């Protein structure tokens, strides 16, 4: 089975900007538990867009799990220069997961207002289920994803 992991980006809105402090530590632990549980239930492939926050953390977790398990990471980046304005540490992490991914593709060559939407569409079409992480379940920016295939997580 194949799952996509998406986030509405709410985790970047916390006052704390250091991802090695709370609430990020707890979010990462829950994310690891969710990915591991999905893997033990038969999900062997995951798609992410590698955006800062939950998608990048998920990619890093999957790369760690790849060392001892038959699990696959597929990246659908919104556009080629997605990380060009990120700080050096985040860029290095971004490129590290790209090197370890089983596949990497780009939704578009250059950034457009719809780049992230196109990446999400590609991932959702290739997936059996889509995990969307948000702090509320009453909104969905991804209206092109069949709601029956969406699993909401509030972490």
Describe the structure.
The protein has helices spanning 24-40, 54-66, 88-100, 115-125, and strands spanning 2-7, 45-48, 72-79, 103-108, 129-133, 150-153. The chain is of the alpha/beta class. It has a six-stranded parallel β-sheet. Helix 2 packs across helix 3. The two termini are 23 Å apart.
Radius of gyration: 14 Å
Low-confidence region ranges: none
Strand line-up across the major sheet: 4-3-2-1-5-6
Please state the average pLDDT score: 88
How much helical structure, as a percent, in the residues?
25-40%
Shape descriptor: globular
Order of helices and strands: EHEHEHEHEE
Structural class: alpha/beta
Major beta sheet summary:
6 strands, parallel
Short key terms for the protein model shown above:
single chain; alpha/beta; 6 strands; globular; six-stranded parallel sheet; 4 helices; 155 residues
Explain the layout of strands and helices.
Blueprint: E1 2-7, H1 24-40, E2 45-48, H2 54-66, E3 72-79, H3 88-100, E4 103-108, H4 115-125, E5 129-133, E6 150-153
Parallel strand pairs: 1-2, 1-5, 2-3, 3-4, 5-6
Short description:
The protein is an alpha/beta fold and 155 residues long. It has four helices and six strands, in the order E-H-E-H-E-H-E-H-E-E. The mean pLDDT is 88.
């Amino acid at each position: 089975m194949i799952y996509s992991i998406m986030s509405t980006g709410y985790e970047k809105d916390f006052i704390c900007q250091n991802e090695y402090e709370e609430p990020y530590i707890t979010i990462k632990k829950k994310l690891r538990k969710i990915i591991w549980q999905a893997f033990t239930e038969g999900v062997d492939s995951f798609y992410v867009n590698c955006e800062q926050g939950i998608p990048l953390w998920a990619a890093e977790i999957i790369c760690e799990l790849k060392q001892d398990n038959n699990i696959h990471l597929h990246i659908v980046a919104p556009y080629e220069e997605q990380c060009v304005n990120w700080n050096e540490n985040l860029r290095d992490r971004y490129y590290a997961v790209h090197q370890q991914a089983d596949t990497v593709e780009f939704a578009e060559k250059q950034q457009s207002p719809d780049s992230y939407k196109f990446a999400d569409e590609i991932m959702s079409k290739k997936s059996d289920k889509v995990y969307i992480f948000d702090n509320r379940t009453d909104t969905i920016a991804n209206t092109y994803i069949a709601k029956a295939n969406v699993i909401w997580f509030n972490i």
